[in-house]
Structure formats: C-alpha cells, structure tokens
Design brief:
530 residues, alpha+beta, five-stranded mixed sheet, five-stranded antiparallel sheet, globular
C-alpha cells in the first residue's frame, strides 16, 4: 500500500483515533490525580507543571495575569494547561493511528515532564513525587495502545496494516475498550478527589475544633466614624471572604495545626527552637487592626484589605532567642520565612524588630485563619508589601543576610526591600459613571501603613486641589476613609485624588509599574454628569 493509499485508508478513522488520544489523556490524568491524592496532592501533574510554569514565568507576565484575571489567575493557568494537554492527547491519538508505538511513547513523555516538574518543585518531598505522573503515563500509554489496536484489522495483518474504510477494525472491541477507559477514568478521578479530601480532613478538623484564647492585649475599639456610611466605599473591615488573595499556590495547603511545626534558626539565634501550635497558644496573644497591601496592586487597584489579626509578637519571640536587630549589633539583617508550599519571603530584621506589631498571626477577624489566608500560622508585618513580609502557611524562619540569600521574588526581579507607598483610591463614583448634577459624594480610601494618613485632596479636572474630609483614624497601620462633596456640573469630568502621610510626604504623581517595589501615581476616574 502506497503512502497516499495509507493516508486515504486512515482518514475515516481519524476522529476515532483522536477520541482514543483524548481517552488516554483522561485516563493518565485521572490515575495521576488518584495516586497524588493518596500520596501528596501537590505532586499531581497539573499542579506540578502549573507550579513550574509559575516559577519560570517572567515577573511582568505574572503581573499582567494578576491585573487581568485577578485572583482567578490560577484557574486560568490550570485551564490553559488542561487545554494544551487535550490538544496534545488528540494529536497523539492521530499519530498513533499510523505509528502505534510512537503515540504510546508520547504519552510516556507526558509522564516524564510531569515527574520532572513535581520533583523539581521547591516543596518536593523527593522521588516519590514522580509516582503520580509516572503511574498516569503508564496507564495512559496502555489505554492508547489498546484503543488504537482496536482500530486496526484483525488477523495476521494487524501488525503492519491499517483497516480500509468501514472494514476490518474491531468496532465492538473499540466501543467496549473506550467505554471501559471512560468509566475507569471517572472512577479514578472520584477516588483521587476522595483521597485528596481525606488528606485534608485532619487539617479541617483541627481548624474547626480550634478556639482561640482571648488576647492579652486587645485592639483598641474602632473609633466611631472610622467607617463612612457612603454607598460604594469599601467596608472599613474587609470580610475574610472578600479579602484579596495573591500567591503562587495552585492548591491551597491544608495544614493540620496539631502536627504543624515552626523552626527558628540562623545567624544570631543563640537558642534555635522548634515550636508547636500549642506553644504559640500558650504565649500572650495580641489583637491588632492592620491593613495589608499586595505589591501587585495597580494604582486604584483592589489588592488592599483591612482585618483584625490575632497573633504572637514576632519581635518578642526573636528577642527571647537572642536575636538582635542590626542597629544593635545583630549579625542578621534578613529574616527568611519559608512556607509549606516552598515559597520563601525575606523581611528586614530591623523592620520586624523596630516596635511595630509584626505578628505570627493565628486569627483573622475573630476566627482562626482561613486556609486560603495561611492557616494555621502566617506572618503579618505592618508597612511592608506582602511579598517581603506576609508568608502564609509558614514553617521555617531563618535569620540570615540580604547578601547571603535571595528569596523567591528577589530572584525574579523584585526589590529586596519594599515599604508600602503612600496611596489613595476613589471608590465612588466608579469610572464612567453618569451622576446627576448637584452634590455628588466622591469618596474612597487612603493608606500609608506605619506612617498614617494626614491629608487627602481631590482635584476636579485641572482645577485646584481641595481638601477632603478624613474619617476618624483607627491606627496608623490601617487605611483611612475620606469623602469630598462635589458640586457636579454637566459634562465630562476627571476626578483625581492624592494623599499626604504623617511624615509630610505627598503621594507622587509619577506613574510607575508594580515591578520592582510597587506602583505609584495618582488615581483618577472619568465621569459624565447628566
């Protein structure tokens, strides 16, 4: 049979070959996820490859993804990976119709990529992380090999011939094998979901059963008038469910508080220690209102939130272990926090120990930390962007120097030190709103954590700056709401806001990107008054 004849003979079977590839890919993923559910969910191929992709993605691209997809960036990444895998599987099925063993080998290659990604992750526990991808690939290759075999002629010619259109191939056998593959994949997928859920049940139970002790040092009562009752303005306290989440974890770690440990060691630590969750509960807990800001927050962006945190004063704990800040002769100037998912975050020791309320936080808004926000323990440091302070799911603290070690984000082009910039935002009216003529309330929030907001001003078009009314201040570590009654006239207008912090520094109009140390510039909205 000539090459053209072979191509003509295989053409009617191409859809079935593609279906075979899809079923093989589905089987591979399902088995891999089932094995990962029984070993370690983070070792699953989609999560491992996704994590590797995140690690290797340029900072500018990550920033673009966060800006356009928000906290759904991980979902879009996973959907993208699945789409690529689906196309790869379809192509392998078509290739296998003519080159059966080559197609099966392609599925095995998928397993190799997944295994390398899993074992190369910072949180890898070793060679066992390769098992999910390897097991899935072996099963997927076998499924493809069997299904393609059913599309070939039965009899002695099966090894080197392809069935002509409508004759010779095993219809009944293909349907049975395809159905078995689909049912088996569904079963493996359900098993994987069940095993993954079972692995986190102890963590869920530890959080559900946790009752945080009353703090020895309570937060001050939020002053009356700190929260303006103006429609459209952000709530003064951000509910846990509304609090922004920006991190690299494709699977939210579920850590059992009863088995959690925190190791503190490194330069200047005279007495290295490993603490349990109960050890922290036995210490005096403090309660503080602190506003957090993500460095990926664009001017006027949503990645800022205010919460009431309960935790242990980190500076007191470090001092008990003999740690001294550099200003007092301490050898370490960087505190490197490590998360259970492999993230590393570096914070200036001087800032952590300068008297601000740097916390090992256990609670958020009156309840144990949500899993998505770091349960059982995370760091919170007022005045520093999250990428240099807010380590979630923390398991290790090492005292070192900035010269000796570059944490995760520094290796990717972000700054080593990043105090939060003085910023302000217009919450209402929204961009392109169409308010009526008359008095329109312009309002929003401003923040300069650990310095405090002294003044907010609003400008209409190119007119003079006019001082807005500030709401009552809670603490200098929280954001501050503001309002400005604007006598709106018909037509299009541009509203701009700027803030001044307690040091006298005025928010700059110079526009900068979020990379390397946070965005800057004035926030403006354009409205049309009817």
């Amino acid at each position: 049979m000539t090459e053209n004849e072979k191509k003509s003979a295989t053409a009617p079977l191409l859809p079935l070959a593609a279906l075979s590839g899809a079923l093989a890919g589905l089987a591979a993923l399902a088995v891999a996820e089932a094995v990962a559910g029984g070993t370690r969910p983070q070792a699953g191929p989609v999560v491992a490859v996704g994590g590797a992709a995140i690690d290797r993605t340029p900072a500018a691209v990550k920033d673009w993804a966060i800006r356009h997809f928000g906290t759904n960036d991980k979902l879009f990444l996973q959907l993208g990976i699945l789409a690529v895998l689906a196309l790869f599987a379809l192509a392998l099925g078509i290739v296998a119709l003519r080159f059966r063993r080559t197609g099966a080998a392609g599925v095995l290659l998928f397993g190799v990529v997944g295994a390398l990604a899993a074992t190369g992750r910072p949180d890898s526990t070793g060679i066992t992380d390769a098992l999910p991808s390897v097991a899935g690939a072996v099963v997927g290759a076998a499924v493809l090999y069997v299904l393609i075999g059913r599309l070939r002629p039965r009899g002695p010619a099966a090894q080197d011939a392809v069935a002509p259109p409508g004759a010779g191939w095993d219809r009944r056998g293909f349907v049975i094998a395809a159905g078995a593959a689909a049912v088996g994949s569904a079963g493996a997928g359900l098993l994987g979901r069940s095993l993954s859920g079972a692995g986190g049940r102890d963590a869920v139970a530890s959080r559900r059963n946790l009752v945080l002790p009353a703090p020895g040092s309570r937060a001050r009562t939020v002053p009356k008038g700190a929260g303006l009752r103006i429609p459209g303005v952000s709530s003064f306290v951000t509910a846990n469910g509304d609090f922004y989440r920006v991190d690299t974890a494709l699977v939210v770690p579920k850590v059992d508080a009863t088995t959690w440990r925190l190791r503190i060691h490194g330069q200047g630590v005279r007495r290295p220690v490993t603490l349990t969750f109960d050890d922290l509960l036995r210490r005096e807990l403090v309660e503080r209102d602190i506003t957090l800001t993500c460095v990926s927050n664009e001017v006027g962006g949503p990645y800022v939130g205010n919460a009431r945190w309960i935790g242990v004063q980190l500076a007191d704990l470090l001092a008990e272990l003999g740690v001294e800040p550099p200003s007092e002769g301490g050898p370490a100037d960087q505190l490197v926090a490590r998360s259970v998912d492999g993230m590393t975050i570096g914070s200036p020791v001087e800032d952590v120990m300068d008297g601000r309320d740097a916390l090992l936080a256990l609670g958020m808004n009156g309840e144990p930390l949500p899993f998505a926000h770091g349960f059982p323990v995370r760091m919170v440091v007022p005045g520093l962007y999250g990428f240099v302070s807010a380590c979630k799911w923390i398991k290790d603290i090492e005292l070192t120097t900035f010269d000796a070690y570059d944490p995760y984000w520094v290796k990717r082009g972000w700054a080593r030190r990043a105090p939060i910039k003085t910023e302000s935002r217009i919450d209402t009216p929204k961009p392109f709103a169409r308010p009526k003529t008359g008095t329109v309330m312009v309002a929003g929030v401003a923040w300069a954590q650990h310095r405090g907001i002294d003044k907010v001003e609003v400008r209409v078009d190119d007119g003079p700056w006019q001082e807005a009314r500030l709401a009552a201040e809670d603490t200098r570590d929280t954001w501050r709401q503001w309002s400005f009654p604007w006598r709106a006239t018909k037509g299009g207008h541009t509203l701009t806001v700027r803030a001044t912090d307690r040091t006298g520094a005025v928010q700059t109009d110079r526009r900068t990107r979020t990379i390397p140390d946070g965005a800057s510039g004035w926030h403006s909205v354009v409205v049309t008054v009817d």
